Amino acid sequence: AADAARVAWEAWLKRHPEDVAARFRLGLLLGALDPEAARRHLAGLPPPADAWAARLPPPCALEARCPQAEEAEALRRWAFTLVGARYWGEARLALDRWLAVHPKDPVAMAAMGYTLGRLGADGTPWLQRAAARSTIPPEVHYFWGLYLLEHGHYREAIGRFAAAWHLRPDPLFALERGRAAMLAGDLLTAERWLREAVRADPDNVKGWNMLAALYLGHQIRTGEGSAAARELLQRAPEREEGYEWLGWALYLQEDFTEAERLLRQALARDAARPSVHYRLGIVLAAQGRAAEARRWLEQTVLLDPQGEFGRRAQRWLNALPPSGD
Q1: Measured at the alpha carbon of residue 180, what is the angle toward residues 179 and 181, in degrees to the nearest 5?
Q2: Mean pLDDT over all residues of the chain?
Q3: ω into 48 cis (within 30 of 0)
Q4: Please, what is the angle between helix 274-286 and helix 240-252, to 10°?
Q5: What count of Cα atoms within 13 Å lies in the side-chain half-sphere of residue 100?
Q6: What is the pTM assigned to this prediction?
Q7: Contact (CB, 8 A) for 5 and 92
Q8: Tens digit of pLDDT for each residue in 44-74?
């Protein structure tokens, strides 16, 4: 599969040599196959894509013959960087190369199980192998928890994140424990662990985003939600989530004009985000601008026809006056 993907990318680039995104993906793919070729593709890319060239493993790491331990671990770091960046196919390839020469690495096994799950395959055998030892590293519980979350097993996921936290109180484990509790509908537990996550690591904007989602997505404690959204916006002004959540907080406080302004700023950063289309439609409807609201809600349905926001938008459309009224 990797060889076929390489051939396909290379054939595409022969016809479209200016395609920066294709060069980037080919570079990621080659990282665990031919690092030097990968470097040639990645090093000449515009920032921030060019930074990936510095993360590439040396060729010796692919065969476990590097004289320095730091170099030998580079393939493992490359694989986990790909997992963190959600390049699942490339991550699977890199993990496969690492496990071929380090077959007893339990954390890599667990990461492989999670990655396979994200690719639609059964990762359970890898997770079971990773946990089949007297001492289970906390990262194994963490990846198993992520796998369970993706499959809707929220309570079991909470147990895995709790086990990881017990072994090492890492704010990342607290964050995911809070997310799992929120998805399970246990909002008090979710608040406790999300608060712990931002206390321990206030610079991780994911924690502020999840806190905003907890409060504002469930329309509870909107003052706390507004504060979380402001923290998110201050720490990551380039991301659309801060504008969206703060706009929604202002809608809940009936400041419709400012809510509309912020939601339009969110759209300027991600014009295809269904939740922003939906929320902007609701804000416009609250101002009596039914025709404009209808257009944004219809776009929500087009962007998210089977999803939560598409369904919500359809219910609002059914309640709005017909076009032309």
Answers
A1: 90
A2: 95
A3: yes
A4: 30
A5: 14
A6: 0.90
A7: no
A8: 899 999 999 999 999 999 988 888 888 889 9
